Amino acid sequence: MADLITWGIWISLFVFSFFIGTYREKAHFKNLVEREKTLVLLPALTMKFAEDRAVVKTELVMGSVVIGGDFFKQVVASLASLFGMRISVAEAMMDRARREAVLRMKEKAMGADAILNVRIEGLKIGERKKITGIEAMAYGTAVYYAK
Amino acid sequence: MEITNIETIPGKRITTHYGLVCGSTVRSKNAFKDIGASFKNMFGGELKNYTRLLEETRQEAISRMIEHATSLGANAVVNVRFATSDVAAGAAEIYIYGTAVRVE
Amino acid sequence: MKFEPNYSENNVNVPSHNHFREFIRLTLWLLGIIFGIYFVLGYAADRFAERLPPKFEAAIASGITSRFDHGDFPRTSKYLQKVLDTLVTSAEGLPPFTYKVSIHDQPAVNAMALPGGNIVVFKGLLSELKSENEVSIILAHELGHYAHRDHLRGLGRGLVFMSIMTALGLSGDLPGFIAPSVQTFDLKHSRDRESAADLYAIDLIARAYGYAGGAIDVFKVLARQEHGFKRPDIISTHPDTLWRMQTVANYLQQKKYPAGSIRPLPESGVLPFPDDKKGKPGVVKLGVGPS
């Protein structure tokens, strides 16, 4: 009987986190696409120089975010890690984190003409076995060209 | 598609740039193959499985970045950087990013 | 160099958003692999258990039996031992152990066959027994497990199961659902063993006493205990009691064993013998191996 209860709790937690996690992920992706479209005019570049124009102002900008994993994703990731394959749940998480970080960096540089020499870092937060959270951090130099 | 990790593509002129492009893949080791690796761990030496796994993973990340750049209309990616982070136990993320450009 | 703002909505880094399909596929793979290993190793463990020399078994037995403290019921134990000895002398195909019976002071309705010929009867079960026929059926059932080497199979399979789980690193948090599903599957195996032991018990008491009366009564005891709390057949280690009664009844008819008389219990007619409180009934079980 105790087994049944444990099993029941496990399954309901699993199903619950699947639905909530999927909903939030979809919403986040939609939100990312919208914001990226509005910020598409501000380029982020990995190069040190872009256009041959006089620069009037530079500024270091950065953006970071921690995206948490849910129970469902943890289960799928640990299953996938047995077989040696792509872990698409983790890919989606990393993608969300990195894009969000770049967006936040761009949002800090509102009014700039470009962000140069951008670097992006990723970091796992949490215990060895679990995906507790993923931090992504983007930084670069925002430049303002002379008008 | 030309990819470099310097600012330019020597001998060519960059006409247009399209901003950041990236490719990422998360791959995990195979737990069953890992048993072999743990034996090797006693004696050292190259873990061929792992070398191959990471190579494949990088290649996949690169091709994703290329796909991204192509969809923007670029024909080269310059100043490319690799970043690797561990996501979960036994899994690694390979992330590659650069600036998509058009060269002539 | 000029800037051309382009945007591509196609997400190259996340090719699929269908995580659930991935989960299902992975689970099926994993279950397939575990079942595969389990079948092969489980079969090997069975074969090994059948060939394990009794001497070696007696050596490993002490480690397991020491987990059960032997309750202080010297006179009851002596009586049970007497019944057991009668059965053992007329039993066939038993491994050459010194069979001992001990009473475990627990309210659970349970009895088990531990390696090395140690039978443990729980106090909860004893207090339900109304005649010597019933006592002998219980003991004969456990002897049946020894004759079929089930007590070792249980250990062997458990060991195989644990090793697979540990090898895959699954014993911890992750797929909490995989362990129960493999176990559920294994229970089918366990139920077959129980049924075989039932029939062995009938044969044995028919040989020892010349009749097989009271066999059905034991299952009535079990059925009474199950009343109000009946586990679905698939998750029970023991076959549905009614089904067991039916099988035993059919077997009795087929073999045409005489019903004979009911032999009462000595002394006051209750087990364990006087001034013992009657324990609360627990999970209905009559089985092999530590539970």
Structure description:
- The complex is a heterotrimer of chains A (147), B (104) and C (291).
- Chain A has 147 residues and is α+β, with helices and mostly antiparallel strands.
- Chain A is built from three helices and three strands, in the order αβααββ.
- Chain A has helices spanning 2-38, 71-83, 88-108; strands at residues 55-68, 114-125, 133-145.
- Chain A is elongated.
- Chain B contains two helices and four strands.
- Chain C is α/β, with parallel strands linked by helices and 291 residues long.
- Chain C has one domain.
- Chain C contains nine helices and five strands.
- A four-stranded mixed β-sheet of chain C has the order 2-4-3-5.
- Mean pLDDT of chain C is 71; it is low at 171-177, 227-235 and 276-291.
- Chains in contact: A-B, A-C, B-C.
- Chains A and B meet through helix 2, helix 3 and strand 2 of A and strand 2, helix 1, strand 3 and strand 4 of B.
Distance between the termini of chain C: 76 Å
- Low-pLDDT runs of chain A: none
Spatial shape of chain A:
elongated
| DSSP summary: helix tally of chain A | 3
Helix content of chain C: 40-55%
* Strand line-up across the major sheet of chain A: 1-3-2
Count of domain modules of chain C:
1
- Portion in strands of chain A: 25-35%
Listing every helix as H and every strand as E from the N terminus to the C terminus, the arrangement of chain C reads EHHHEEEHHHHHHE
Describe the secondary-structure layout:
The complex is a heterotrimer of chains A (147), B (104) and C (291).
Chain A: H1 2-38, E1 55-68, H2 71-83, H3 88-108, E2 114-125, E3 133-145
Helix pairs in contact in A: 1-3
Chain B: E1 2-3, E2 14-28, H1 31-43, H2 48-72, E3 76-86, E4 91-103
Chain C: E1 2-3, H1 19-51, H2 54-65, H3 74-90, E2 100-104, E3 111-114, E4 118-122, H4 123-126, H5 132-147, H6 150-167, H7 178-209, H8 215-226, H9 241-255, E5 287-288
Parallel strand pairs in C: 2-4, 3-5
Antiparallel strand pairs in C: 3-4
Helix pairs in contact in C: 1-6, 3-5, 3-7, 5-7, 6-7, 7-9, 8-9
